[in-house]
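Quick question, first post here. What does this chain look like in 3D?
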Amino acid sequence: MRILVASHSYIVDLNCEKLRALARLEPEIEVTVVVPRRWRPGGVQNKIIETQPRQEGSFRVVPVSNFSENNQGLLTFGADIISLLRQFRPQIIQVEQGAKALGYAQLITLNKLMRLKAKNLFFTWWNLPYDLKFPVSVLEAYNLRNTDGVIAGNQDGAEVLRQHGYRGLVKVMPQLGVDENRFCPQPQPELKSQLGIQPDDFVVGFVGRFVEEKGLLTLGLALAGLRERPWKWLLLGRGPLQTVLMEKAVEWGIKERLIWVESVAHDEVPRYINLMSTLVLPSETNTQFKTLTAAGWKEQFGHVLIEAMASKVPVIGSDSGEIPYVIAEAGLIFPERDVAALQKCILSLMEQPELAQKLVRLGYERVMSHYTNQALARQILGFYKQLLA
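> Answer (accepted):
Ran it through. Tokens below.
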């Protein structure tokens, strides 16, 4: 099976693990990953990345000349994509830039003109309803009409596409898996001591952006109601809400309980997750604000949940977006913005160590069977076989 995947995401080598695992599943599988030759992550002010080719057996990354260096919707490829398609003749063409991507329309059209007869797929994270105007509405209609299968990062994303008229096959799974060799139980006594965490402290962890929609004010209020308990709040990340959180921590009388860790290398994140007694993702859906690019926000997946589950840390999440589907029965779920319900979840883990251990076991089993890169590779191969059949 010859599989071609196109996305700017795979410029980052770490993001390629699922596709490497896919190439190793069966001897006849070949995976070619197309990435833009020049990319400027984070916008026009940032430095351009010049990507380099990589080959490992039947897996390879091929940089291709590109138009647009920082907008995934506008990303399209130069003429060298034609020679690559002619040489490789893929049976699967998967573009991971969403339903409205110009690059996806480009590869659909080349597939037709070159008579490759490959199956067309795209990946999307988008999970909120939206309306389109001409000419983008025509572009999306063309893409959906010529799509053989969709991989959606969440259940809501699949439903949104149904609302836009897509009737084909959909597989719900995240774009990237968790590396169980990096995210695994690793005692950190020295780091715990450096951060002033005492042996009897119950460490409530959060990893992510410090923004209002992540529910940090709700989590802070819940913890403030448990001041008589020995706990610490470990916050890993950064964002504009940090100043507000600091002010609120003083107001709530919990300032000394907070541990701020603002800048951590990606390789160091597993160490901090291993300090946590529980990881909480209290995301809050917001469909009210509107910008030039979005009409709101709802949790698309919550990758930190599977990182914690792989590290044998019990998780608590709100019912925003995909969180309940990710956690399922392997963690605790509360209604978003419900301070009392979140407080009850935290308290139950503090008071019931047997419950915590049960969730550790269920969470670990769930992530190993559903969310490692190997597990995702098996799922996506099954979906490809279904399409080709």
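The CA atoms of residues 278 and 314 lie 5 Å apart.
The chain has two domains: 2-177+372-388, 189-370.
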